[in-house]
Design a protein that fits this description.
Layout lengths: L1 E12 L2 E12 L3 E5 L6 H8 L7 E6 L5 E4 L11 H11 L4 H14 L15 H13 L5 E5 L7 H14 L4 E5 L3 H7 L2 E6 L2 E7 H8 L3 E6 L2 H9 L6 E3 L2 E5 L7 H9 L5 E7 L3 H11 L1
Helix pairs in contact: 2-3, 2-4, 3-4
């Protein structure tokens, strides 16, 4: 079931189109990564979905009574308020009853790991603490759609891990769309991928679909030297590529699989150093797709 459907979404400022004819859908309970270089239009797209910007053309169709939470890339706070006061205020603005707002704010701050800092003024918060606080205000009202602009960009590796785990736990009840440039983290918690460049959507699909189209899986066999690698490749019936002392064999139904390759290698008398399956990482796929468009 789709809770968001976007059709030909466009935003222009003067003569410049910063978002061009985007069409995609978000399925309930999924996490979608919006990936693109700086200036691709990711923030503008998220801002239109959050109803902070009006589209120049195109449509955004939301499920009935859909509640939305939004975390900008650089969240701003009132430095004289404590974390608890700020999130309690956000809860009230989101429609939570006054008598319940403080309790909900407290629980949310505990959830994002700020239980020991909830009575500190936000002006003294570090960048990572502000990122957690921004997430708290975005989820305090338990939205069904969560829009996050670079939610882990200001965090150290430990903080990124903790926030990624939090976002995974939210997926049970919440659909998440987030922009990121940390692709290793995106690969871990993403159901769907949207690649953007120059305001256009240049690739989309599930993680497995995108990998199948672009990952270029292969088996890499390493020999002691290039002569042995070339000799091995010439004696096989299947086409392979030789680079230095390595033989690269595509993974394809018409080629031998890993078990068959290992059986062939077991009969070899030449010096084999190692064999392994390889495929392009999400970052390599992204760079490949962007360069091709």
């Amino acid at each position: 079931m789709n809770i968001v459907e976007v059709e030909k979404l466009t935003k222009h400022y003067g003569q410049e189109d910063v978002v061009k004819q985007l069409s995609f859908a978000l399925e309930k309970g999924t996490a979608t990564a919006l990936i693109g270089p700086n200036g691709a239009g990711k923030t503008t797209t998220l801002s239109m979905l959050a109803d902070l910007l009006s589209p120049s053309s195109g449509t955004i169709t939301l499920a009935e009574n859909l509640t939305i939470g939004f975390l900008p890339q650089y969240p701003q706070f009132f430095p004289w308020l404590t974390a608890l006061e700020f999130v309690e205020m956000a809860a009230k603005i989101s429609g939570i009853e006054t008598r319940k707002a403080k309790l909900q704010a407290t629980r949310t701050l505990e959830f994002v790991g700020l239980e020991t800092a909830m009575n500190k003024k936000t002006g003294a918060f570090s960048g990572g603490m502000k990122q957690r606080l921004g997430l708290a205000q975005a989820i305090v009202h338990q939205p069904k759609l969560l829009l996050l602009d670079e939610p882990i960009s200001a965090l150290d590796p430990t903080g990124r891990r903790e926030i990624m785990d939090l976002l995974k736990s939210l997926q049970q009840d919440t659909t998440v769309l987030y922009s990121t440039h940390i692709l290793n983290d995106a690969e871990e918690m993403t159901d769907q991928l949207l690649f953007m460049k120059d305001g256009c959507l240049i690739e989309q699909g599930s993680l497995s679909e995108v990998k199948n189209r672009h990952a270029d899986p292969h088996i890499r066999i390493q020999f002691q030297n290039q002569t042995q690698a070339l000799d091995f490749a010439k004696r096989q019936s299947w086409k392979s590529e030789v680079k230095e002392s390595f033989v690269f064999l595509p993974v394809h139904e018409s080629y031998p699989n890993m078990q068959q390759v290992l059986r062939i290698l077991a009969s070899e008398q030449q010096g084999i150093i190692g064999v392994e399956s390889q495929a392009a990482s999400l970052e390599e796929i992204f760079l490949k797709v962007v360069a091709a468009k």
